[in-house]
Design brief:
The chain is an all-alpha fold. The chain is 55% helix and 0% strand.
């Protein structure tokens, strides 16, 4: 075992930095905005078909925005800060 393996947990740096937490928050906000884009469009009368349910905003834009939010969150978690690459 090396000295690096026996270091106590308290002396190890936090795996997620403040910058990473900011990116996680941004990703969450982007995902919530995508969910908001999907809201609405129901019909008051069940016998009348509402074409607003199948518009571009709901079928294309909202899922793309949600996937962008997920990508931002993945990058925030996986990205290693520059000062840790030197170790």
């Amino acid at each position: 075992m090396s000295k690096k393996d026996t270091a106590p947990e308290a002396s190890r740096p936090m795996p997620l930095t403040a910058r990473g937490l900011k990116y996680l928050l941004i990703g969450l906000i982007v995902m919530l905005s995508g969910i908001i884009l999907m809201i609405g469009g129901g019909s008051d009368d069940p016998n009348v078909f509402n074409y607003a349910m199948f518009d571009f905003r709901r079928l294309v834009a909202a899922p793309v925005v949600i996937l962008a939010g997920v990508a931002i969150m993945i990058i925030a978690i996986v990205k290693v800060p520059k000062y840790r690459n030197k170790e």
